[in-house]
Amino acid sequence: MKRKRSTVLVIDDQYGTDAVADSVGYDRRAFLRDYGDGPFQFEVTSGFDSKRNCYSTQTVLSAMGELKEHLDGVLLDIRFGDEGDTLGLDIIKGIRESYPELPIVMMTSVPKEELLSRCLELGAVDYLVKPLQPDLLWQTLDRYVGTSSPKWWLVGQSEEFSNAVDMVAMASEGGATSVLLLGESGTGKELFARYLHRHGPRSSGPFQAIQISALSESSIEGDLFGYSRGAFTGADRNRDGQLCEADGGVLFLDEIGDLSLPIQAKLLRMLETREVPRLGDGKLRKIDVQVVAATNANLSARVKENTFRLDLYKRLGGMIIRLPPISDRPNDILLMVRHLLCRGVVERMPGMPVPELPEQIVDELNNIHWDGNVRDIWNFIQSVFDLATREKDFSATVFRKALKMADHGFSDTPQIELSTLPKETVNNSDIYLEKLALQELSLLYSALQETRDARTGAPNRASAAAMLKGKEKSSTNEFDRWVQNIMKKLNPDTQATICRAYPELVNMVQERGQW
Q: Is the pTM of this model over 0.85?
């Protein structure tokens, strides 16, 4: 099935209206002749207001309004007639305010670094140098255009990031049978998998994302392969598993390293035969899927430890792509922050102009070590919106408070010994009690990290509780009770921050509604 072409509005003073046609040497017909037969549907406007005899942002926005229901992206020239760069920058602001979900790719004949940086600061996602090269034009627009939300844009300018994008593009174009994405937690593995699906030959089929670590050991086989009625207690009907639900599309297996050896064997068999055996009756169903697996684990090491099958590793690794951590692409940090501000507006404050990043905190953001990579930055942006909603602004003060909330500040909590505080202070000060509670929570989290399962890497709350008590055995319920009691001491804003920053620590308790 042929994919519908996405629509891109080209805004350039060269592609003149009739009023200025004599002054341009390269009109819209020439542009459509050179590029119109590619994978995108182009609409063209010069931004020229014939009544006022000048170029204007309002003319551009009016043209966009006519295409609003069908517009997927913008290709914008930086310079406009005698207006120079100023109008191009104003147009970016206007588009960002009215259409924050649309990606803006800039065009320029003279790639001045300072000017391009300013364009990216205002909300553009990338740029191209004229004269445009068709292959590079298609490849660049492919990264951003045609998505339903800015959260699916692949944003980054660094060489390491661009190389990863190029490899995923190759995998999608070639229809690679299997792809293995390797990278730290939060580097965007699912985002890359969705990009591969959207631009590959299976884009009309489903995208089935399976979070292996979220499936319980007791139900994982039935969840993946399906089951027949009566296969186990509670199986009151036949059910197709998630593998079958991906038939005709892309199957994304996240955290593949968490699979147990028996399930690895069954998955390998499915990849070789393209048949899914249903639990209970062994009935086989043929499926046709492209498999994209991802992990933050060192699979080569696990193969040597005999906790991951070598034959499955080779089968999954038809094409291996390593996604760089944000520490390897520091020049992308501010670009990512601004992009996620745009995404935050779309998701949380639709219709509001995208806030500009205060200059006072730029250096601070660049100097932070984002341990959780892009996910860490997104948690920070969520905290910005939490605070901005309450304080009604996006000032530097709000951004700094958000940095302390989004895990960048817990390590700075003063170490307060209970015995050194006056009794009346301990009894009457919520602030001191909250600091003590955070210290207790930090201790629980450290214990959870220390007692992860050596084979799967999964947290083990029972072992953490036993270690803290200095005993051989304890229970998950005891660990959860400690978390519950501590969370009750925190104010709602702090509770929300803890839930975002430490989901492994609090999710099980939160799901039971225990605070």
A: no
